[in-house]
Structures are given as structure tokens and as C-alpha cells.
């Protein structure tokens, strides 16, 4: 369709020495270009390349498995996810209502995740004082905090449950990663348990929330 730029005719005369004009130079350039194959296959020794490659992805171990006697059943899991979904819907309807929050205060969007007091139980008033960004940030901060724990208290589980109820969808990548960390932490603690107790029940709840409801458990 388009005419080639600097079109020239004839064959190059290599025996005449250096090109005497621009046309002769272009003839030689065209001739050299025609000698190059349209497809060139490079032969690469992949085994040598792999030995020199710097590892850039950490090897993340599988999520620990707990004793079958302590794992939640599929029936319980389904029933709980239904309850959890209804709880989230009820909070969303309350939080998006036209009336003021329970405390009558303006939602706090300053310093997310810093103003909450984990040593006390979460309340509806406290949660509704936060905006969506603050709730997500507080959830991420709390999950970061429990990574060094060997056990989770009832208060820890209450905060995690309440913040998971109120975090908005769709989740951002950072919050997804935090929920994945919560799943791994709860599963790790659960794997150390040998008998049923209140912590096992709470851990199963958090595993169901992070793994099943928020889709971080890859079966």
C-alpha cells in the first residue's frame, strides 16, 4: 500500500570498493537486509540460565492442617456463612440508613486503625464511628498485630469478627493479603490444638470468614 522509502534498483557492486554515492550505499543495505531470515530461532541453554537466576518469589508453605476432629464440618461452615452474610447485610442496612450513627457523632476518618482500643470489646457505636477506609485499615493493623501471638484471646477474636462484618466489598489487594495472613495464622494456631475448647471454636469461625467467605482458602 505504501511506497518504500529510499527505493533503489539494481544489484550492489561490492567490487568497486567503498560506495561512491548514496544509491550504491542503499543497494548494499537492501542486499544485507534480504540476507536476514524473517524468523530467527535462538538456542538458549535454559539449564545454565536457571542456575544463574536470582530467586524473586519466596516459597510460602502450605496452610497447616488441624486434626479432623477439630475442623468445622461442611454443614456447619455453610450454616455459619449464611449467618455471617445476613449479619453483614444487617449492618450495611443500618450503616447506610439516613439517620445518624448510634452515637450521633460524625464518622472518624483520621488516623485509621490507631484510635481503637483492642483491650476492650468492640461495640456497634465504636465501629460506626469509623468510615470504610478506617475499618479496613484497622482490620489490617489488627491482623498485623496478631502475627506474633501464639494464642488468640476472646477479645482478639471479637475485634476480628466485628471488623470483618463491617469491611466493605470489593476488597483491595492489601486487605485481601491481610485476610490471607489471618487465615494462615488461625490455621497455624489451630494445628497446635489437641482438644476442643473455646479458642478452637473461635479459630474455626475466623478460618471460615477469611477462607470461605472472603475466598482466601484455596482447596
Summarize this structure briefly:
This protein has 219 residues and is mostly helical. Helix content is 50%, strand content 0%.
The fraction of residues assigned to DSSP E strands is under 5%
Note the total helix count: 8
Q: Let me know the number of strands.
A: 0
**Could you name the ranges where pLDDT drops below 50 across 5 or more consecutive residues?**
100-106, 108-115
What integer value in Å does the Rg equal?
32 Å
Which overall shape is indicated by the principal axes computed on the Cα atoms? Answer: elongated
Structural class: mainly alpha
Oligomer: single chain
Helix content: 40-55%
Describe the structure.
With 219 residues, this protein is mainly α. The chain contains 8 helices and no strands. α5 runs parallel beside α7 (173-191), α6 runs parallel beside α8 (198-213) and α7 (173-191) runs antiparallel to α8. The chain is elongated.
